[in-house]
Amino acid sequence: MRRSSAETKTVILAAARERFAADGYDKATIRAIAADARIDPAMVMRYFGNKEKLFAAAAEFDLELPELASELAGAGLVRHFLRKWEADEGLQVLLRTGVTNEAAAERMRTIFGGQVLPFVVRITGDPAGAPLRASLVASQLLGLALSRYILKFPPMVAASEEELVARLGPTIQRYLTG
Q: Can you tell me the mean pLDDT for 147-170?
């Protein structure tokens, strides 16, 4: 069965996301991804050039940041990110890989810089202070994800969404508006 170019890219990206999730960046191979997609490895290279570019494409995420009133932004962000991390294992893979791989770390910086920073500017109305505020917000949200989903600290795993929102929301709020 012949696929269109767009369909082939979609199949490759789906296989890459699953393989990166299962094996991590370093252990995932173009050959394994191609086998998962049931195509020749040369096709992966044709569409994406190399493993790093394939990873960047597979690690493209829209954080879908909600519209929040500034006084509710801290709790809203914590709730949103908990749900996002739960729903999208790819973000967990990106975090896990970003700790040891520069390409993944750059992807994470690009995603957070391109999406969280404008959110913070909108909430604060402070373009000059927003980069530091956004970095502080990211440190809390990424720390939460690392301890809950990657390292799986038992108290973090056991905590309810509402408990985490109640405890971390005020800290995020202070970073945003304090």
A: 96
